[in-house]
Fold this protein.
Amino acid sequence: MKAVVFLGERKVELRNFPDPVPGPGEVVLKIKASGICGSDLGLYRAPKESANPNLIVGHEPCGVVAEVGETVPPALAKVGMRVMVHHYKGCGVCNHCRSGWAQLCRNGMEVYGRTDHGSHAEYMRVPASTLIPLPEELPFEVGAAISCGTGTAWGALVRLGLSGRETITIFGQGPVGLSATQFAKAMGAYVIALDVNDERLALAREMGADKIINTKKEDPIKGIEELTHGEGAELALDCSGSPDARIAAVRSTRTWGKVCLVGEGNTLTLDVSPDLLRRQITIIGSWTFSTIGQAECTRFIVDRKIPVERVFSHRYYSLDDAGEAYRVFDAQATGKGVFLL
């Protein structure tokens, strides 16, 4: 089968791999959609010395069950079933795994596309326990989005306890931020979207943002204060991973407010007393979602008819286009990309 690997230093190659065969408890998927995620860029940009050219990349899988291994109950997986994948594999028996949080497994875990073969391929082998049914109402590309970026936005908003009476600031309008903007608006909140790129802010406006702020052109803290009658927002979500954005998120949140961080990497340096203690600020770290959360996110999208497919600005119908796909996405001026096979 054909599959995509990273060679380091923004070089991509399409290679041939043996077709996977399911073992006991496993299935093989025919990949129908594989999303491109912002967290892929770290591997894409990595030095040549740290690249693994024998690893298939991509961690937003969605497809159809093609083969079922021994011991897999029919209720869990059968040939032809439309499925997403929770893109982590843990021990399966610890408390975290048993509650659907394999990424928190204390006995060691694998991440598809990083430590185990991923989804930028024609086929993919995974444990049947990682499968989440994809409703007929949703196209495969939406299932791919839910499998990481869109699901991550959902998980963060759930952690924040967002309600329709609140104002939320969402820093970073890449794929995760755009999904968060969609969801927050569907939940009834007043949404202020922030980014450094006008194209992404225009997408945020299309997704339902009530106000947009380009933080290269306007002081975000001052702008948010003006939009909230000097109080600041009740909630803030940082999807950017930028230290400056994180500081602005905290300092533009009102007393008793909550700030959630989902953007990977970098740092956050605060003056504890004025920034946190004396304003009773809560900071939350949110890492993706559980299998249960992935299913809940999917049901919310179906029931509310949320057009998640609008986060995709680029669709690629061949893995041969992987080089171009990552060059476009690396500029971080567009929406999300996806391979449709």
Q: What stands out?
A: The first helix runs from residue 40 to 45.
